[in-house]
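Shipment paperwork, digital attachment
Item: protein structure file
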Amino acid sequence: MLVTAPLAEFCTLTIDEIYGELPSRIYASLLMRGRSTIQQLAGDTGMNARQLRHGLALLLQHNLLHYHLDAGSPHYFYEANVEHAYNLARTGKILQMVEETHGAAAKDVMQTIILTGLTRVGDLVDAYQNRIDRMNRIKEKLKAEEDPFGNGVESHEVNGEPKPKPTPQSSKSDPLISSIADLNKIIYKLVEAELLIGVHKTSFESPEDLLATIESDIQKTYPGGEVKGNKAKAEYKDKVAEALRKNRSESRSLKRKLEQNGLSAKRRKLFDGAASANVMCINYEKCLVELRNRRLMHYAEEAFGQTTSWVYASLLNLLSKDISRCRDDPITDHYEKDEEKPAPVVVTTSQLLDVLKTSLDLSVGLGQVDADKISVTAAEKIAELPPRKKFFIDVQAEADANASSDDDDEGEDVKPATNGVNGVNGTHVTNGVNGTAKRVDRRTQLRQHLLLLSESTQGFLRHCGAEEWTVDFVPLMAALRQAEIDATIENTVGREGVRLVRMLRAKGKLDEKAIMSVALMRKADMSKKLAEMHKYGFVQTQEVPREAKADVKKSFFLWYFDGTMALERILDVSYKTMIHSLQVLDTLREKDQHVLSLIKRSDVKGQEDDKLRKIHKEKLTQFLKLERMLLGQIQRVDDLVAVLRDY
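Attachment content:
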């Protein structure tokens, strides 16, 4: 991950928001200086040894640091883990995803592990056992008050007077996990879903240090420690990739043990003896896969409607069982031969039909089309290979280039596309002949939704075999990133700006005269719009001298669109927006510090309506409203960052 100044500042503010000033100062020093020893940190931060040990221990506990010991060096080197620090901002989304997928009890376990950081299984069991024992004691105390004589008959009088009727306990106060057996089931579920993984000896190594160590070890196996020849270099690259994959699989040791021993046997082994020393942590890579599924479901709902999006979500859930991360690593996931690459994950129609809820009405969202307008061959076409990345760019660019002329063709009689779902072209969807309604079975309706997704211009789905479906995430996310960039440009500089960007994307580098002829705009308006987009970093210029001796007055300039630079510019602005939100929130806390200190008091907490004065309640309500708005703004901006950078 490219660590820019705004990203570093946002990560530092996030750590300060959650863990306080001490660890955030250490983290900021590591970001500014780079990898450092504890002696160097002491000089940079001005902290004593005790403060540094406390801060480093907290950061390591929450997996926010990498550390490495060079051969022959007496000191450890510490380095900031920016990816995990940024993922702290996604804690709310992750917990919501876990609750919707695995239930409220699983959310409680995940929240506990996020708060405590790296957790031994035995410690987690002890913590929940203490909770359960405490709740049991409270229940026994309440029961004793209701039946003081222990004869099963409630006492209705106290000192000769009627006893007040006890207030019924809310079901919300009951523990979500009432026994260790329930905790076991939840941990197995989360480990099987790979949301929890084990911690091993190289978990704290940075990717660069781990790669350097593996390369050094493999080079020693060659004569003289040198790799010579093309064949030897290819073999060396494969060995490095294989070693990295083996190291990566170590974190899934808990899941492998669970699969090898079976569920019932694992319940006995996981928490007994030395097995309880297993250390677990949150697997943010898998969490991002699940969050990507939710985002793709949202895109599908915008394009095709709710029913088709639910079908798509179920298919993504089946696919994701065998997908551990959103993006492949170019070194770790390198295979010299195509036959060595893992086969793409596919889902059959029958598998999807089995997991769909029977309450989902698949007939909703399907249009009616005349039979003579349906091309069965085109609809049922099977694409065995994924599309090339260039295919998506060319198709979208061509469509965008033509879009500029569509707005001006008001007088032309254009035949509308056959309406499938919510105005989307779906020529294969039919419920009858010549508009006559006809009953179709559930499997046929499911296939119609899948064919709609496979025919989308974004490429949500690929019909890869007979009754087999898969998702090509790389070209799909490339198309969605392009759509998000266009949407951001349109919101910033208007519709004319995004039209110019689409034309530059399709045509390449153009001078102003060529742009004016293609865009059909006046020169003054076009120059003004190009200058505005250049200010925001959406388009770039290249000077081309007319003569061998460069002279600005005799040169002409070409305008072009650089997708990578535009993406980096949007990310930079997104980080700054989130930084500003955290700074405003900190200012509001200082302003209402008196009220916030009141609600932390033990005699006020939980009884704010009764204990606080009216003016304090109004200030508290206003602060909580602004806090929700600011935190919600951060989450919305993060949705864009995730699509552009992580998914």
